[in-house]
Amino acid sequence: MLSHPIDSTQEPTYNYTDWKYPTCGMRFIDYHAAETILAALEDNLDEVEVSLDLGLSMSRISTHQKDWTVEDLEKIAADKDSIYFTRENQILKAALSGRRFYKLMPTGLHSPPALLIDGVLMHRMKSIDPMSDARSKANLCAQQGSKMLEICTGLGYSTIACLDKNVSDIVTIERDENVLELASINPWSKRLFEDDRVKIVNADAVEEIVSFEEVSFDAVLHDPPRFSMSSDLYTAEFYASIFRVLKPGGVLFHYVGTPGSKYRGKDLQKGVMKRLRSVGFEKVERKPKALGVLARKPPV
Fold this sequence. Notes:
Elements: E1 27-29, H1 31-42, E2 47-50, E3 59-62, H2 70-78, E4 84-87, E5 90-93, E6 95-97, E7 101-105, E8 114-117, E9 120-121, H3 130-141, E10 147-151, H4 157-164, E11 169-174, H5 177-185, H6 190-194, E12 198-202, H7 205-208, E13 217-222, H8 236-245, E14 246-255, H9 268-278, E15 282-287, E16 292-296
């Protein structure tokens, strides 16, 4: 369960939620919201307009709330890398501890939160917000009416971007239940759990993909963590499994990033492209704006 009270040193523990978006009316507070409410209190205002769903909408609320104290707001305002929410008369941090430490982090007033795992960002953040990054990936592989496979759901932003391209349905695989737990309370991830076109599979993609029938999908969006965290998702053997489930003429977009390129001169994308060609993909090309590689399965 996400149970990290603002004044608690106890680590939160995981509780299975069946990946259903909660309907308990939680209100979210990041440093933007905390600073806005504190400023209104300082000006002796009775009401203030603020976002309590991480920037998706604005609400006019009373500055005199029972859910938090001025001291709570001051602590949240000082913690610019965390997100908090109210539930059952507590203020909790959107964070989880398991084998690793997971948390949601604000990225801007009207942009979705990012996911951090052990302090490592799971999203591009330089000159782009996480949802815009997700759209750049979906634009390369998702088409109206297509049946899609996504590997590595994360917070579901790429899934949602594919839904916006009017795909017919999408199977999305995420092996880390803690990531899905955080997604389940993230307001920006709501459609991941509510759209009937989405099937979430909590499993290891390397193992799960072998259970799919051949030529099942029109397109695959492969969005793995960095190579150092999930090297098994960058192997020729795994690429062969993707090739097998793609329909002839199907498209693969593979996010790779540019790890090690600036200081160590490494070119991870070059190795990825070589392995993709070795298992049968053609028209393999870099997509610099999306920091990935596009490839196609030959038509019949």
